[in-house]
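Reviewer comment 2.1 asked that we show a complete input and output for one of the modelled complexes. We chose the zinc ion case, as it is the one discussed in the main text.
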Amino acid sequence: MRSSTALFVVIGALGACLGAALVTRDGSSPQRPSVYTPAQQEVDKRAVTKLPAVRAPADLGELAFAHVRTLVDFGPRNPGTPGWSKQLEYIEQTLTAAGLEVRRDTWTDRKELITFTNLAATIPGKKKERIVLACHHDTKCTTGHKDPAHNFHFVGANDGASAVALLLALAPVLMATPREATIELVFFDGEESLDWTWNEAARALFGSKRFVKKHRDALLLGEEARIEALVLLDMVGRTDLHIQDELYSTRQLRGVLWSAAVACGHQAHVMQRAEAASDDHKPFLDVGIPSVDLIDLNGNVHWHTKTDTIENMSPRSLQITADIVLTMLPEVERLYVVQKG
Ligand SMILES: [Zn+2]
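Response of the prediction step:
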């Protein structure tokens, strides 16, 4: 599987993947592949667009890390838990204090009888067309599984809290800069598969599926501005941060990610390995919305284990991701909103 240039794991033919994640760690076959299959082609790292580096404020990583600590202290945050309720309130309070209006979308899945909540807040730009900057806020449920190995105390410091914390820390920074596009901050619920193994078709990605469906309905009725692109963050605070070349993601946007990493001098943390990972960007890709997932899954030994704790996180990793996101966004706005308009 290792080529001379890079590790290149093609799993498109196999369809859906595990976890926010990968094919068949347990050897099981996926249920139903998403309509969208991975590009199966790595980014050409020689094709760098020269972008101006946009640095996050020097204390942003520490600020985000403090948010992680708070969220982790709430305990497990899968739907219905006390930690889940506390986290929703914390996200709302933090964004409201920053001057944003937070919209809550709560619904009960008829089959699962689980109540989920997505949160969203809008940062207006010059144009009404939107770029979604998103994460998932739920943590993997690690209780009630048949296999006792899957039942343990899990706080999801990286898988869940890191990206939530980073969006909370970034919100005031994004608001302080005049933007071309309207930025929609979205916190999806129900990303994690209710089955221990990834079940994308039926039992995962609840929040992003709902969000995309509602958006499509609203577009038909002319009630919402179009979403032109999605930038998704998932697991962005690990000490050994490595944002992979995620092969489902739109290739042009992966190019922007790589160019932003180069502009900031963060190449060592980006795209040293390539692998497809199923995540909340899949429902967007399925309806043709260009999307990129900044995810640190490949080689992440803490993923869905009891060691996904704050001890294995670092403010520096959050700072690096913030630099990359802030450097990417103007180019994403230019490519998908300004040029289109
Ligand atoms: Zn996960």
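Residues 8-338 form a domain with the Aminopeptidase fold (CATH 3.40.630.10). We note this here for comparison with the apo prediction described in Section 3.2.
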